[in-house]
Amino acid sequence: MSRVRGPWTAMWGLCACFFMVMLDSTIVTVAIPAMLGGLKANLNEVVWVNSVYLLANTVPLLLTGRLGDRYGPKRVLVVGLVVFTGASLWSGLADSAGMLIAARAVQGLGAAAMTPQTLSFITRLFPPDKRGLPISVWGAVAGVATITGPVIGGLLVEHIGWQWIFLINLPIGVVSLVVALVALPDWRPGRASRFDVTGAVLCSAGLLLVVFGVQNGQHYHWGTIAGPVNVLLVIVLGVALLGLFGWRQLRTRRAAEPLIPPGLFRDGTFGAANLTHAALGFATTGMFLPLVLYLQTVLELSPLASSVLALPMAGAAGLTAIVAGATWTRVGARTLIIAGLAVLGLGTGVLAWYVEPDSEPWSLVPWLVVAGVGIGCVFAPLTAAATARLPGDLAGAASGVFNTSRQVGGVLGSAAVGMVLQVGIAYSVPDAARAYAERLPPRYREEFVSRVTDAANTASQFDTTTPPVPSNLDPDVADIVRRIVSDVFHVGFTNAAKASLVLPIAVLLLGAIAAVGIRLPRRGRDRQPVG
To answer: What are 427-443's pLDDT values in tens digits?
Structure first.
């Protein structure tokens, strides 16, 4: 491989691209309440605004990683950057939930073209013994962008409007495009190859069906979607297609190259790192949805105020990522990764314990910082462990697989936590309604519980500003009932948020178990790529 003059100039351009991709995976969360009203959408539709981006960013990653190996990473990255920036403009101009979901899907496809190339470039720009610092920077960008998404989103929603969480990508995208065209070397592949198109279709369809079933289960009351098709059938079919994809990858040898080359997993560390990456993606994506909605709907914070609470978390993640990147060769990658996952789980668990309808918002900050420290401990050493022994001719494929694992985790985290939250609201709000109904005269209790239950079961169209109250009430009594309804919703939603935060903690435990399989010598020994 030829050496590149000024690789750090190219590195900063790659970081800008990667920052946009990661930012858009979480920036939507803080704007959900504003988008619910602005687009006249329900919670399920707005959750899909985020999930469809993660899904479209995930499904093609295996293929786009291989496209970088075939056509050159610069060309694929530039195409993805143009698509991403154009779709950001479309998203900002969308005037309906359906249009926004479509635009976000295209934006995710652009992100999928860019993401594997960023890590692939690092393995090409820097020799193995010089990758420590750039990988640390790459990991810090991932951690900070993930957490600052809600912060930047809150500032934009508060002062300009939710549309600008997408339009902000336009100047960043243009500058990144100029840097990419000028500073990135245009490596050409040494050989042509044929890809497993059938495998790509199987993987894409399987992921789509699984995520659709999990995400929309509560929306369809876990029953019929259309005709004989029900939610369970969709999920089972998706899992079957993914299984068929895995089987095909093991058998694809001659006619086409598999999207996941078997040689990548000869070293168990790469497989363990990918499982851990998936768990981290699940937790970091899944934990923000219930927390942001709790802060804005229960504690009634503005988007700006709720996002400011995440600033210390973002700072802690960024600083810790830099320290972890500089020390993992002495401390050990596996030690830092497991410790980081444990600290992130601890911070999330204490947050779940502390959130109450009357909690003081700033009392949550210390535990958000703890969670940020945990995230920062993981990204750089985990990326280093996954890339330390990458085969040079499969850098794109390996980058695609590694990023796919995180994105699959993120998609499932967004879908599963959103599903648990909706189920929790459907059960906990009516329970709270029955308890609070005892404060009302007997003749109003049944109608009160019925109206609140209907509101909780209609995809979270519950609005605390105009809550459902029994009809034909005296105005004074109606005001009392409205206050009771708000209390019911706050209690019910808080309980649902607590329950939904347990899921990321459980997945982090699984990630820590997977991280035990990471075997990487300290002090950089045995870090040459294997062919």
So the answer is: 887 888 788 777 777 77
d(CA 92, CA 80): 18
Question: What is the C-alpha to C-alpha distance for residues 344 and 528, in angstroms, rounded to an integer?
Answer: 31
Rounded CA-CA distance 174/12 in Å is: 14
Longest alpha-carbon distance in the chain? 83
The span from the CA of 19 to the CA of 177, in Å, is: 14
pLDDT in tens, 400-429: 788 778 877 887 887 788 878 878 887 887
- Which are the contacts of 379, defined by CB distance < 8 A and separation ≥ 6? 139, 140, 142, 143, 280, 321, 324
Please state the pTM of the whole predicted model.
0.76
DSSP conformation class of 128 = G
Using the 8-state DSSP alphabet, how is residue 267 labeled?
S
Q: Are 469 and 448 in contact (CB under 8 A)?
A: yes
d(CA 60, CA 199): 11
| Helical pair 197-216 and 231-251, crossing angle rounded to 10 deg | 150
Local structure of residue 196 (DSSP, 8 states):
-
Token pair recorded at residue 154: 């809150």
Question: Which residue reads 């336009």 in tokens?
Answer: 170
pLDDT value for 225: 85
Q: What is the dihedral of CA 168, 165, 167, 18, to 10 degrees?
A: 50
pLDDT at 474: 64
The SS3 of residue 254 is coil
Helix 268-286 to helix 395-436 angle (10° resolution) is 30
